[in-house]
Specification:
By secondary structure, the protein is an all-alpha fold. The protein is about 80% helix and about 0% strand.
Length: about 80
């Protein structure tokens, strides 16, 4: 997949993750950046579990899971 599609999916994943994690988000712009990093994290976690994704929808789901995971981890440090 091209770099442009990866960025678009990461931005969408950050927006969806921010919406899913109400109260744990950091605002629209930061959630978008978290989505980009979450895409990488989701790919890494999927690779560890041996899960493969196909197409744009599969990549979006993987990215959202990674972004939600990242928002959850960051929110743990935010409370401390």
């Amino acid at each position: 997949m091209g770099i442009i599609w990866s960025i678009i999916i990461g931005v969408l994943a950050g927006a969806i993750a921010g919406w899913l994690m109400k109260g744990s988000g950091f605002g629209f712009l930061i959630n978008l950046l978290v989505g980009l990093v979450g895409s990488v994290l989701g790919g890494w976690v999927y690779g560890l579990l041996g899960i493969t994704t196909g197409g744009v929808l599969g990549t979006l789901v993987m990215s959202v899971i990674g972004a939600v995971l990242l928002l959850w981890i960051v929110s743990l440090f935010r409370r401390a």
